[in-house]
Amino acid sequence: MSNVQETTVQTGLLAAADAAVRAVPPVWPLASSVAVNPYLGQTGDTLARTGARLARVAGCPITMPRSWYLERIAAGTITDDHLADALAKAPDHLRPQDVEALKAAAATPAPAPKALPTVAELAAQESGTDWPRLIAERVGHWAAGYFDAGQALWSAPRGRNAWTAWRATATHDLTPEIHGLAGFAQRVAEAPDSASEAIARAVDGLGLDAEALDTYFHQLLMTVNGWAQVARYHLWQAELAGTSDETAIDLLAIRLTYELALYEQHREALTEQWLVTRAEHSTPLEADAELWLDAILQEAAERAAQCDIAGKLNLGPVAADDGDRTRPALQAAFCIDVRSEVFRRALEGLDARIETLGFAGFFGIATSHKRFASDTAEHRLPVLLNAGVHSVSGTCDHEPKAFASRIKARATRAWGRFKLAAVSSFAFVEASGPLYIVKLIRDSLGGSAHDAAPTDPAPRLDPDLHLEQRIAAARTVLSAMSLTDNFARVVVLAGHGANVVNNPHASALHCGACGGYSGEVNARLLAGLLNDGDVRQGLRDGGLEIPEDTWFVGALHDTTTDAVTLYADDSPSTEHAEDLAQVRTWLRSAGQVTRGERALSLPRAESGDEVSARSGDWAETRPEWALAGCRAFIAAPRGRTAGHDLGGRAFLHNYDWQQDEGFGVLELILTAPVVVASWISLQYYGSSVSPEVFGGGNKLLHNVVGGIGVVEGNGGLLRAGLPWQSVHDGEGYQHEPLRLSVIAEAPREAISEILGRHDGVRDLFDNGWLHLFSIDGDRLWRYTGDLQWAEELEGSATGGAFDTSPPLSAAAS
User: Fold this and answer.
1) What is the Cα–Cα distance from 417 to 425, expressed in whole angstroms?
2) Is residue 310 a contact partner of residue 802, using CB atoms and an 8 Å limit?
3) Does the bond joining 463 to the residue before it have cis omega, within 30 degrees of 0?
4) In the predicted model, what is the mean pLDDT of the chain?
5) What are the residues whose beta carbons fall under 8 Å from the beta carbon of 231, sequence distance 6 or more?
């Protein structure tokens, strides 16, 4: 082979490896959990074709069992109209003839998806040794040390890439040889120095052609799924910073090394079966009639949910603003998070003069923040963005207290390491164990002390922005919130978080838009910005006037207890003391109502009074339901949904397109909050339909590894995704796996133009990972793909089946 040919082959191999890496979703460390779309690498394909891929590489389903849909058909939730509409979307040659044929076909259980066998699986059948399990255990054992984020007392050596670090370990690991893989350590010692060369050698040795690499490489990464997602996270972070990372490629080379070694040892026995498997990997992916049947049923279930949502929209003409609106007694802005919908509805029900708003939980302040007495930078912003500003808690006046806090923190860390160290841990238990008996009893009775709301000093930008930048930031955020006039005397900006004990996934209950952190820092920073007199004067000069008596207050909504903490001392105002007392009364009452509603769905919670205690119970696996049940994203004035119970299932973003000149705010909503919401929705979807592959497993068996993630039991694969207890209550699903329906009140032409500029966002809608609707007065229009729209519903809130008209082009509409 010439040098040119060799370079071309190597380039093709690396391209295939890179594609396989991007087919795997990233996973964030436990300390900053972020909901991730497990199908992130497949959004360019339809649900059915993705089902074909995942069946081949992981043997996992893409939809619920057919019995789940049949139950809803029998109950009348999914009607014949829903089935007919869904049926029309499938290819003619792959769909049942009519609705009755569809129902009959749905009564037959779907064939269980079965992945193609890896060499390790074929060798296991031949030798009787469970090679897939052994490889997962050995790779997991090494990866736990290599990726450790500070949990291990004795850290693995740093400064080496994953391929080099693994080789250094594997050359001294005799476990594979003890189980029968002769000379494996020597083989690793003689392997190429670069992962790319190791991949090329393995591909050549396994006889793989170029067409087989796509799904075969993807499959090998899925066999070490959680660790592959950690490696993908390293690539994500590197590219966000403008660099690159080869960790996932190295992991693929490691997995291929095991495959090649097993194949060469068992070549004679495996050749025939391996030839068949290679040929099947080379076959183009196509969704068959069974997968399309499942996709049709899923579409029908989602259309049923959309009718329910449409029935809770106040369609029709909006009352004209006569310039004489009553001033609200309180305006409270919450995160768009579905949990906020319940609290907002309860708060609005207390007084007709209370107005609530929904906005992305980082409140437009993308900050890298250092908490009080900490040098650790926390990225409190959506993971799709880079930090735009830096902030810290406290000033030089707080230095004495900060010094004392640092000393206390170091002592606590030292004590913790002493308790866990290899030499001292046994002596510690013998000498000090009995002293913990009171704490153990208290914790067992549900009396664990959990963290209160953060009490750090007021955050500040460091360095501060120039006045012009502060004014521009304030104007941008207020415009994006559609809050530009008729300000109340008190405007509460409420970030959200949660406090629980003994829960490795605690940060997953915080604000997903804030990188897995609670949102009070962003809310407090924005409140300080909007209370700044110079900023207000600059806004006034530009035509946006905030009344002198309007006071912004940062707050934190604890979604586990539904208590709201006000940070009123950040910018004290004695003239608002009476207002503040009333606001606190309203917030307490709204919290009580919200807890009562949430108690109806929480296991063993007979009343709202029992809800708060769950956050301090160290044995509670379901302190709250987080975002389970999410099914819709609505970007419209609050008037479109006011007065309706959305059941804590909708992301609500205030948006008034008539104030959005140039549709810049609409573009931000569709490309940031909607994408974040889609990640959340699809993580819940994947954790429900494919819990063995995309779920986090059983909380009762979790052990934290490296501060990164969890394993079930004492080893094995890292489990990424949501624990089973986050989607199921022990008797049935708490989350209905439905792809998110996005409803925006905006001209269709503007939406289409935005989609035309953002291919990645357009893919989500064109391939059905999200549904898209536009509100036009008393009508809803459905996006049908390829920048086309169809009229769906006419009239006010009805809840009847949608009427479908012929598609209209974006230009014609």
Assistant:
1) 9
2) yes
3) yes
4) 91
5) 21, 162, 247, 248, 250, 251
Q: Does the pLDDT of residue 425 top 70, yes or no?
A: no
For 531-582, what is each residue's pLDDT tens digit?
Answer: 999 999 999 999 999 999 999 999 999 999 999 999 999 999 999 999 999 9
Sheet holding 459-461, edge to edge: 377-380, 367-370, 389-393, 459-461
Answer yes or no: are the C-beta atoms of 111 and 290 closer than 8 Å: yes
Q: Which of 581-590, 615-624, 660-669 has the lowest mean pLDDT?
A: 615-624
**3-class SS of residue 564:** strand
Give the containing element (helix H, strand E) for 632: strand 632-635
Cα Rg for the chain, rounded, in angstroms?
A: 28
Q: 3-state SS of 236-292?
A: HHHHHCCCCCCHHHHHHHHHHHHHHHHHHHCHHHHHHHHHHHHHHHHCCCCCCHHHH
**Which two tokens mark 445?**
């009775």
User: Which are the contacts of 262, defined by CB distance < 8 A and separation ≥ 6?
Assistant: 119, 120, 123, 131, 181
The answer to whether the beta carbons of residues 719 and 286 sit under 8 Å apart is no
**Is-contact 331 355, C-beta < 8 A?**
yes
- Say which DSSP state 735 is in: S
- With residue 743 as reference, give the H or E element that holds it: strand 741-744
18, 249 Cβ separation under 8 angstroms: yes
DSSP run (H or E) holding 652: strand 650-653
SS3 775: strand
Distance CA 339, CA 768 (A): 25
The percentage of residues in the chain with a pLDDT greater than 70, rounded to a whole number, is: 88
pLDDT of residue 799: 39
pLDDT at residue 285 above 70?
yes
The rounded distance, in Å, linking the Cα atoms of 658 and 660 is 5
pTM score of the predicted model: 0.93
Q: Would you say 763 and 795 are in contact if contact means Cβ atoms under 8 Å apart?
A: no
Q: Which two tokens stand for residue 394?
A: 């406290």
